[in-house]
Amino acid sequence: MTKMNKVKLGDICVEVGKYGIPASAVNYSEDLHRYLRITDISDDGCLLENDKKSLNEKDADKYLLSKNDIVFARTGASTGRSFFYEEKFGKLIYAGFLIKFKLDESLVNPKFIKYYTISPKYKKWIENYQDGSTRGNMNANTFANMELELPNRKQQDLAVSILSSIDDKIELNNKINKELENLARTIYEYWFVQNAEEKWERKSLKDLGVEVIRGVTYNKNDIKTVNDKNVIGILRATNINGNVIDLDNLVYVNKSLISENQKLQLFDIMVTMSSGSKEHIGKNGLFCFDNANVALGAFCSKIDVEKKYKFYLYKYFQSEQFKNYVKNCCLGTNINNLNNEIIKDIVVIIPPTELLDKFNKTVSPLFSAIIKNRQENATLAHLRDFLLPLLMNGQVTVNKAQDEPTIIPLKTGTDDDMKYQTWKEQIGLAARGGIDEQTLRNIYEAIDEK
User: 211 and which of 88, 94, 304, 391 could share a cystine (Cβ 3.0–4.6 Å)?
Assistant: First the structure.
């Protein structure tokens, strides 16, 4: 086990606890800087691309993020959520409910702190702090005095190298999927919007035989843990980001609360029906996991439709036409929800059968590739989460005779290849794989099980 060094966050920073700009967002524009709010940051510290906003303030440049900056959410249900800035994100202005620290790279690998602040140890610290009277509110001084246990710099560099390689692969898969989605949308718009013919039939979703199935209702007493028996994961509106459905931060309830038709199946369309914000009403995605054994929560519905219409309707639900329909339904009201009949009353163009068949044949390979990449990302995220606490705790070995971190094979009294295969099976990587075999082997050998 590597020796750990206790420090406070403020002691490894060149700037400590700068609050963001208290200003209102405006609609996103390429001519303005993007505005970074708490809601733009995921639980695992990623930048979300849905519902982007900009800022139009003369002093905005004073709040631009730069190299080695990390920000923390200081209020609300997301208190403690963190985001580490990198230049690839472009110019970002951070909002008033965020607190910025600039890390000193001579004292710490800045990216190690990024991973530390999504680790179980950090999240436990946030949870313990919020058990007191200041629940849901933390200030710059609190974060500055947060104690961290750091391994030596070589161990930090090794941890960052391993975890970054996993995140880079996830990011690449996401970029590929975005291009595949864009291609499917281009085909849909060209065939069914720009070149739609007046003679094509128009039908409501009700007439197409569409069923809108609302998710399960549960209360806090129904919530279980993933380790309890006979439980099932529940997806909520927060699991839809952009048009991507993830399996992160599921709520677990007893299977007895769920009806069979509330379970999500491959290529189901999941739609947000209720939200505290009108901007989130109608956001939707295509469920791209097979045999996931999850259901949807009460604020969401799934669209059950004949197989031949699934891809066609999914692209409709992603269209500006659907977004405008939802806006008009909520216009001038204080109602932040859709009901099943509103969805069923949607009227869509029905293209000729031969053109619909051609569309399905054309886009099916695109969605097959998307599924593969999303399932691979789920495997990679599982691997990263498995490794994260081990790497943060210094449970790796570095050859001190080398200038660069090197991996020392684990010494065991049994057949190491057999142990390696068993390890892969235990973390869900058997046969499928997530990254190349050599990288997996290196990660396995980096874990100190003593």
Answer: 304
